[in-house]
Write a structure and sequence with these properties.
- Helix 1 packs parallel to helix 11 (229-235), helix 1 runs parallel beside helix 20 and helix 6 runs antiparallel to helix 7.
- The chain has 20 helices and 22 strands.
- The two termini are 17 Å apart.
- It has 3 domains: 9-44 and 229-308 and 423-475, FAD/NAD(P)-binding domain (3-Layer(bba) Sandwich), CATH 3.50.50.60; 50-58 and 311-420, Alpha-Beta Complex (Polyamine Oxidase, Chain A, domain 2), CATH 3.90.660; 105-213, protoporphyrinogen ix oxidase, domain 3 (Orthogonal Bundle), CATH 1.10.3110.10.
- The longest helix is centred in the C-terminal third of the chain and has 19 residues, at 426-444.
- Strand 1 (9-13), helix 1 (17-28) and strand 2 (32-36) form a beta-alpha-beta unit.
- The strands form 6 sheets. It has a 7-stranded mixed sheet with strand order 8-7-18-19-20-17-21.
- By secondary structure, it is of the alpha+beta class.
- Bound molecules: flavin-adenine dinucleotide.
Length: 490
């Protein structure tokens, strides 16, 4: 592989894992890299906190070892050996007849084996009969090469609406805090795309099972000191400026000029503004922030995909119960609960942290985490103060599991407008923005501005890592030979 000489001076906007991955790779290739983040820590949507005497997560909880590239990166960072894998245990789905164990072979995008689904009791007789038709339906409805459909349309078309509503809505819809009627198959479930385009059966094909949605529980890892070890390791040796917001980006011959505004720390003060010049810029920030930054460079119609992206607000409530709570409630022997968007409850999911993670077992306490928030419900979530929000989620938990014990500790964390909604047609709209940025870059005789992160290339840490890698590779003029997920910039 031949690389072009690295750009000497690169600005990376955003110190989430996508920005840090891009920065690390560019710095390793010899570029002078500056990372700025408006927040006061690295990690973006990863946030580890202290509760009782433990390190616990109020944002992303675990990395999915989805691909060899993710595993290789963790090894390179020295994080592979002491990673802690999630323990075994049932994940519960909330059904009209109470909690039911998620059957083996069912992932966020539907089943890859029908036997366990039949035995789970989650589908009714008609739903089972319809799901069993999947192999013959697969050949009849093949997606065109550039065609995208919503996730529900694909899954309901293949397996019937019961599979879509009872499995995929709580799982994939929950992961994205989104609506499966709007989420793009191509962008929100890229691993299904090949299956959709080839007409292969998901339940018959061995390769579909391998690349398909089934996820072994041990495929998720974190660290005893918290998930923040990942961004901290990525940031080691980099020039990261925190509390520094990038704005006022302008094209200049051969590069870009950006205003970096650093907030005053501690005591009152105005903070500082500095205008700096860079040869290249990676925007590893949400699409709405990127839309503002690129406004002087591309037409409104071209950046519409950025400015118009929807985000869901989410909230997590971390709880410490007295340890005895687990002995009384069998549901807590599972790793968590998922609910569909039609459950009528505020609770979207619960993680039984002390069951799921071996290192979070505690002699006196039992940790759990409750989550709320889906696309379109922002106003309702914002209207609830912390006490009301936590109270409603605890009431849902009590109804579903019988846990009525009062927690001894509670921490509410809000993530306003955070979860990007990759809706049908996302990939096409994004290609248009990227083409416009390419054009703007070549008019300036500069590298194009690159977009990296979950707003563009997929929600989740594995996708964000891949997206950062792809942005750096693109700047360095390389083609990635392996990609952790579908991320590819060209
Ligand atoms: C509650 C919650 C739970 C989750 N659970 C999981 C999980 O268990 N597993 C998983 O894989 N994924 C999970 N995710 C999703 C995952 O965390 C994200 O997809 C991923 O972290 C996104 O990384 P990113 O680098 O794209 O963006 P971010 O982490 O959002 O980073 C973007 C950064 O850009 C900065 N920024 C924005 N504008 C500017 C500006 N103008 N100037 C400077 N800086 C700016 C922001 O401050 C931010 O730090 C979860 C997310 C949430 C919110």
């Amino acid at each position: 592989m031949t690389s072009l000489p690295p750009p000497p001076n690169v600005l990376v906007v955003g110190a989430g894992v996508s920005g840090l991955t891009a920065a690390r790779r560019l710095a390793a290739a010899g570029a002078v890299v500056t990372v700025v983040d408006a927040g006061d820590r690295v990690g973006g949507q990863i946030r580890t906190v202290d509760l009782a005497d433990r390190r616990l997560e109020v944002g992303a909880e675990a990395v999915h070892l989805a691909s060899p590239a993710v595993r290789a990166l963790l090894a390179e960072l020295g994080l592979a050996d002491d990673a802690v894998a999630s323990g075994p245990g049932a994940t519960w789905l909330v059904t009209r007849r109470g909690l039911r164990r998620l059957p083996a072979g069912v992932g966020p995008s539907g089943p890859t084996q029908l036997g366990p689904v039949v035995r789970s009791g989650i589908l009714g007789p008609l739903g089972l009969a319809r799901a069993a038709l999947e192999p013959s339906i697969a050949r009849r409805r093949v997606l065109g090469p550039d065609e995208d459909v919503d996730v529900r349309q694909f899954v309901a078309g293949r397996f019937g609406s019961q599979v879509a509503d009872r499995f995929v809505d709580p799982m994939l819809g929950g992961l994205h805090s989104g609506d499966i009627n709007r989420l793009s198959l191509q962008s929100a479930a890229p691993r299904l795309l090949e299956v959709a385009r080839s007409g292969r059966s998901l339940t018959l094909s061995r390769s579909a099972r391998r690349s398909g949605p089934s996820v072994a529980p041990a495929a998720f890892v974190t660290w005893r000191e918290g998930l923040e070890r990942l961004p901290l390791a990525l940031a080691t040796g980099l020039d990261v400026r925190l509390r520094t917001r990038a704005h006022g980006l302008q094209g200049v011959p051969g590069g870009y000029q950006v205003t970096l505004q650093t907030a005053a720390s501690g005591e009152a003060g105005e903070g500082e503004e500095q205008v700096e010049r860079f040869d290249a810029v990676v925007l590893a920030c949400p699409a709405t922030a990127a839309a503002d930054l690129v406004a002087p460079l591309v037409a409104d119609a071209d950046r519409a995909a950025l400015a118009g992206q929807r985000f869901a607000s989410v909230a997590t409530v971390l709880l410490a119960f007295p340890r005895s709570v687990v002995d009384m409630r069998p549901a807590l022997r599972g790793t968590g609960i998922m609910l569909s968007s039609t459950s009528g409850r505020l609770l979207k999911s619960a993680t039984f942290v002390s069951t799921k993670w071996p290192h979070q077992r505690h002699s006196d306490l039992y940790f759990a985490r409750l989550s709320a928030g889906r696309a379109g419900q922002d106003a309702a979530l914002d209207a609830l103060d912390d006490d009301t929000l936590a109270g409603m989620l605890l009431a849902d938990l009590a109804d579903l599991t019988g846990v009525t014990t009062r927690p001894v500790e509670r921490l509410v964390t809000r993530w306003p407008h955070t979860m990007p909604q990759l809706e049908v047609g996302h990939a096409g709209r994004l290609a248009r923005v990227r083409a416009a940025l390419d054009g703007a870059g070549s008019n300036l005789g500069a590298h194009p501005i690159l977009l990296a992160g979950s707003s563009y290339d997929g929600v989740g840490l594995a996708a964000a890592l891949a997206s950062g890698e792809a942005a750096a590779a693109s700047l360095l003029g390389e083609r990635l030979t392996t990609s952790p997920t579908s991320a590819s910039h060209r």
